[in-house]
Amino acid sequence: MQVELSAGTVEYTDTGGPGPVVVFVHGLLMDGTLWDGPVTGLPEHRCVVPTLPLGAHRHPMHPDADLSLPGIAALLAELLERLDLRDVTLVGVDTGGALVQLLMVAGESRVSRVVLASCDAFDNFPPGLTGKTLFLAGKLSPGLFGVFMQQMRLRAVRRLPIAFGWLTKRGDAVSAGWIRPLLSQASVRRDTVRVLRAAAETPDILVEAAERLPSFDRPALVVWAHEDRVMPPEHGARLVALLPKGKLVEVDDSYTLIPLDQPAEFARLVREFTAG
Question: Which helix (H) or strand (E) holds 10?
């Protein structure tokens, strides 16, 4: 499915299930396929999964689109409005969790509860070797950025700590698909460089957001990978301490991208959280 938003065309999937509405938000250089496993495990829910302009999207954004993190968070809020989604459980991992935090502190009224899963937070922005490498690569021209990213065709490179190696234990087949639009479309490369440069200009954005998280008085589940090498495990506890209705759950045998490494467990946690 597609929806025309102010920034451009955004693709999304919608299972149309009868139960609670859950909107899943992916991270940088990822698309909605990140959530295929958990969505399969939630047949009773209405699962809406957009592919946002974070580098793995297939439709270029308008030249004047705001591709900063606040701009993309606003685009996500616009999608909730256009699809008339209410009483939403908003779920984010990696950079998707950063976008969820921005909507939390903005007081987005359509969001009734959130799940923050191993995500950028506080001063961990850009996160880990992967984030720092991408932000440095974003200084290149779109053309040179594309040349740099060509090496991601190789599994051996994708499994390096500077790529997806410390983000997922088992998800290489999925992550291999995420880079295809960027490698094949100059317009997507331009969008991605714009995203990276805009993010690099606001290194304290999540520190500032954290100061306002105590104002979020709705239920919040923080799910952190026990073996995370990119998102510090102590950040999960720090987030819960700021959230009046926060709860922390740690997941074993997973890196940052829990939806890829432990999809059934992630679906179970979301199911129990929405039921509560």
Answer: strand 8-14
Distance CA 214, CA 217 (A): 7
Topology of 2-125+202-275 in CATH? Rossmann fold (3.40.50)
> Domain map of the chain by residue range?
2-125+202-275
Measured CA to CA, the distance from residue 247 to residue 182 in angstroms comes to 37
What pLDDT, on the 0 to 100 scale, is given for residue 183?
95
Taking the model in full, what pTM does it have?
0.97
Nearest alpha-carbon partner for 90 in 106, 101, 78, 74: 101
Q: 59 Cβ partners below 8 Å, 6+ apart? A: 2, 8, 9, 10, 11
- Positive or negative: CA dihedral 259, 262, 267, 269: negative
Which range is least confidently modeled, 14-18, 82-86, 155-159, 207-211?
Answer: 14-18
Hey, what are 239's tokens? 């987030």
The 3-class secondary structure across 162-189, one letter per residue, is CCCCCCCCCCHHHHHHHCHHHHHCHHHH
